[in-house]
């Protein structure tokens, strides 16, 4: 979502003639878009600003804005502690960025915009296209969250659940496709809770899937509790919907799930997975895990490992629990950090083994790949298969924006290496 936001900010500032540069020392305005989900986020801000100060030691200072969830949660402190920062702007106030920059050009006082003005924000960002001509584009359809998991800052930094209008989103999707997108990933902190005037995520996907030149649709991140049957059925019926679902579970222990206020049990989680697999047998799953949540015993942790082995997630994101100020879990007693580290290593080893096994099975299989760009090497292209695996192939002809059948020749933990095959046998398809 921050990548999507950064792109929109970049589109927005073009309107007042600020264009992105790769050369830090050349910038007239520096916008640091931040994430607050785990600790050290604020330290990173000070660190980055330190780097900037060094770069500009002998030059006049650029305008410095801190945007995103760190600005939302700790804006006042940032402005007080770091005078180099001119303004903090929370995620629901991005529409004020240009005015802020223009005001700062006239050297006004530090500015703090951290109100929740989500409707106004999307209204003013709506007329903008993603001008980067990305083959795979993001589209934020929903923001904020009403679930209040005890460890999570999102309900406080991004605010209450808000769904954008279906009409507006179809329009934006069309614009993205006109600008070259072949794949759209619909984004939301709780994307399958999308609900605009009774229109659900499945209605929106169905509408967007009618755009002829749009070939692939993904969505992230889903909550198990909101995985309704209409969405399950859509996976069976909508060819453009990709067969990988990111479905965070956080823990394999019912006790911990309850203490986290996740609002579902492991049995309910597994039944969602079963239901989806029944509708679409070649589907795969990825997930998020929090290791070492307060009160997690080794027995609870083992249940998380069992769940990993049971579902065989093809990708997983795991982190040690990080106490976030302002959340209910912040006041709980943390488990010993060294133990948490040992558990994380054990978990990640198991996850990597499962991932390796899955990947090795892909060798000599066929895979359908949408190519996004060239690599830095001559005649080499980067794309993603239907399961979001990175794929690299060599090709004499330009593959950007094309979907090709690939034979996988080699794999490592991050990438599949293959060759384009024009005559292929459907039976050899991966998964
Ligand atoms: N809405 C999604 C997740 C959004 S946050 C869901 O409900 O699953 C993205 C991920 O960050 C979470 O899935 C969780 O694994 C991780 N995360 C959030 N808060 C965290 C914390 N305090 N400590 C460690 N990881 C955290
Ligand atoms: Fe955070 Fe996701 Fe829970 Fe919402 S559902 S509070 S975004 S972890």
Find the CATH superfamily of the largest domain. Answer: tm_1862 like domain
Shape: globular
Q: Order of strands across the widest beta sheet?
A: 15-16-17-19-18
Tally of separate helices: 13
Q: How much strand content do the residues show?
A: 15-25%
Largest sheet: 5 strands, mixed, barrel
Helix proportion of residues, in percent?
A: 25-40%
Uncertain residue segments = none
Mean pLDDT: 92
Q: Please, could you describe this protein's structure?
A:
The protein is α/β, with parallel strands linked by helices and 431 residues long. It has three domains: 2-116, Rossmann fold (3-Layer(aba) Sandwich), CATH 3.40.50.12160; 120-360, Alpha-Beta Horseshoe (pyruvate-formate lyase- activating enzyme); 366-428, OB fold (Dihydrolipoamide Acetyltransferase, E2P) (Beta Barrel), CATH 2.40.50.140. It contains 13 helices and 19 strands. It has helices spanning 2-14, 41-55, 69-81, 97-105, 118-125, 154-157, 166-178, 201-208, 229-237, 254-260, 266-279, 298-311, 337-362, and strands spanning 29-34, 63-68, 87-89, 111-113, 136-140, 142-143, 162-163, 183-187, 195-196, 199-200, 216-220, 244-246, 284-291, 315-320, 366-374, 380-385, 390-394, 403-411, 415-420. The strands form six sheets. It has a five-stranded mixed beta barrel with strand order 15-16-17-19-18. Strands 1-2-3-4 form a four-stranded parallel sheet, with helices on both faces. The chain has a three-stranded parallel sheet with strand order 5-8-11, covered by helices on one side. The longest helix is centred in the last third of the chain and has 26 residues, at 337-362. The chain is globular, with a radius of gyration of 23 Å. The two termini are 29 Å apart. 39% of the residues are buried. The mean pLDDT is 92. The structure holds S-adenosyl-L-homocysteine and iron/sulfur cluster. Residues 37-38, 151-152, 154, 189-190, 221, 223, 248, 250, 288, 290, 319, 321-322, 324 line the site of S-adenosyl-L-homocysteine (SAH).
């Amino acid at each position: 979502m921050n990548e999507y936001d950064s792109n929109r900010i970049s589109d927005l500032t073009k309107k007042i003639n600020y264009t992105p540069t790769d050369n830090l020392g050349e910038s007239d305005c520096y916008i640091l878009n931040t994430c607050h989900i785990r600790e050290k986020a604020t330290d990173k801000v000070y660190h980055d600003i330190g780097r900037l100060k060094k770069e500009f030691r002998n030059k006049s200072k650029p305008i410095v804005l801190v945007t995103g969830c760190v600005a939302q949660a700790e804006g006042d402190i940032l402005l007080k502690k770091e005078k180099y920062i001119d303004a903090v702007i929370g995620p629901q106030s991005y529409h004020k960025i240009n005015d802020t920059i223009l005001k700062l050009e006239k050297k006004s006082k530090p500015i703090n915009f951290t109100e929740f003005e989500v409707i106004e924000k999307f209204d003013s960002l709506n007329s903008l296209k993603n001008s980067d001509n990305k083959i795979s584009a993001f589209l934020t359809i929903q923001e904020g969250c009403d679930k209040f998991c005890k460890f999570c800052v999102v309900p406080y930094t991004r605010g209450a659940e808000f769904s954008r209008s279906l009409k507006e989103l179809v329009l934006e999707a069309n614009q993205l496709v006109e600008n070259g997108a072949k794949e759209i990933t619909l984004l939301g902190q709780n994307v399958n809770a999308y609900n605009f005037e009774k229109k659900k995520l499945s209605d929106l996907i169905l509408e967007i899937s009618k755009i002829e030149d749009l070939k692939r649709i993904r969505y992230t991140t889903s909550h198990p509790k909101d995985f309704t049957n209409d969405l399950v059925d859509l996976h069976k019926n909508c060819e453009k919907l990709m067969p990988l679902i990111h479905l965070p579970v956080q823990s394999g222990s019912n006790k911990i799930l309850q203490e986290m206020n996740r609002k579902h049990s492991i049995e309910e989680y597994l039944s969602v997975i079963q239901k989806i697999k029944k509708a679409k047998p070649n589907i795969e799953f990825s997930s998020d895990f929090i290791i070492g949540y307060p009160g997690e015993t080794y027995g609870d942790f083992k249940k998380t490992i069992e769940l990993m082995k049971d579902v065989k997630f093809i990708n997983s994101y795991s982190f040690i629990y990080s106490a976030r100020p302002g959340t209910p879990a912040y006041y709980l007693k943390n488990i010993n950090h060294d133990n948490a580290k040992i558990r994380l290593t054990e978990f990640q080893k198991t996850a990597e083994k499962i991932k390796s096994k899955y990947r090795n099975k892909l060798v000599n299989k066929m895979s359908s790949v949408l190519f996004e760009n060239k690599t830095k090497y001559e005649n080499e292209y980067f794309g993603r298969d239907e399961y979001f695996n990175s794929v690299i192939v060599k090709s004499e002809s330009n593959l950007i924006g094309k979907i090709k059948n690939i034979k996988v020749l080699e794999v490592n933990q991050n990438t599949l290496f293959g060759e384009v095959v024009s005559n292929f046998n459907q039976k050899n398809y991966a998964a």
